[in-house]
Amino acid sequence: MKKTKPVWSSLNRWIMLLVGAGVVLSLAFTTGSGPVLAVAVVATPAPGRPTPARGNGQGTQELTQAFHHEQQVLSQQQANLGKAEALVSKIQDLISKAQAKGLDTSALSTALGTFQAQLASATGSNTAAAGILSTHNGFDSNGNVTNAAPARVTVQDARQNLQDAHNTLRQTASDLSTAVKSWEEANKDKLQNQALEKDYQNEQKWLTTQQGLLSKANDLVTKVQDLISKAQAKGLDTSALSTALTTFQSELSTAASSNATAAEILSAHNGFDGSGNVTDTVAAVQTVKDAYQSLSDAHNTLQQASNDLLAALKQWRATHELNLTPAPTAIGS
Fold it and tell me: What is the DSSP secondary structure assignment for residue 273, as one 8-state letter?
């Protein structure tokens, strides 16, 4: 039997996808344009303030270093833009899932639309910087200065476009993160109740399935008892098999008891109405949690007992080499 996950925590998993997206937004776009770009600002003259002319010595060296640094910043920012594009798809998927749950996603959709527009603007600035660095006026193909005046303009213009892209991306990422958190806060109660209602339905299905397995386990007891009787009639030692069957019956009783406890909990449906709709969230959480524990206890006990009995049957057959009917299959496997 395939064990059901503890779905009473499904709300947290779903919300973590949303919050996780916000975390990505707040962290993913700081590396290239935070400390890295700050270094570029030091190495590159501020817009409108040309580098003092110092011939081909230190000034030229600074321009070369600045040019290479802007290339590094460009590479990092292109990676950040790629992460942002991937995030758009994730948020769109979350919106679709939320709509399927009957949730209002208008605020989230608006925030995503704004993010996409700003992302396009940031991409445009980054593309402009890439074009400037690719043309490399004032530099040779290796980034060495060939003409200081246009080289300064190249570095200044590239830096400005990279800074514009960075500022736009960082601000729009922060805005989207805030929107995601606000939407989650506004909808968390409805999300939780929907998750609990689904959990309650799944556990009722699990209960029904497990009751069927317990019935099969009782049939297995009858079959093994019949096998023991036939073996004894042939004068074979069945003590080990009888002991294994007794242990199985004891464990079967324990599993049945746990399953009955789950049935009582679900039947009482504290926190739910008769149709399985949440009426009290706190009580509903406890109902789902307690039912899961009892169902899980029954499942684990039945599966282990079945495996142990099957192993005993195989060992007994190997010892006596009887040409009997095939050994019964394990319950719950």
Answer: -
**In the block, residue with structure tokens 């297995």:** 220
Structural domain span for residue 235: 197-320
* 278, β-bridge pairs: 272
Residues 204 and 236 in one domain: yes
Q: Which of 269, 262, 270, 272 is nearest to 302 (CA)?
A: 262
How many domains is the chain built from? Answer: 2
pLDDT in tens, 84-142: 999 999 999 989 988 988 899 999 999 999 999 999 999 999 999 999 999 999 999 99
Report CA-CA distances (Å) from 107 to 97, 104, 201: 15, 8, 31
d(C-alpha 107, C-alpha 182), whole Å? 9
3-state secondary structure of 139: strand
In a domain, 1, yes or no: no
**What is the per-residue pLDDT across 36-94, written as a single tens digit (0 to 9) for each?**
222 222 222 333 333 433 434 437 899 999 999 999 999 999 999 999 999 999 999 98
Same structural domain for residues 102 and 220? no
* Look-up of token digits 């004032």: 138
Look at the pTM and tell me if it is higher than 0.85. no
102: helix, strand or coil: coil
State whether 166 and 260 are in the same domain.
no
Whether the Cβ atoms of residue 233 and residue 294 lie closer than 8 Å to each other: no
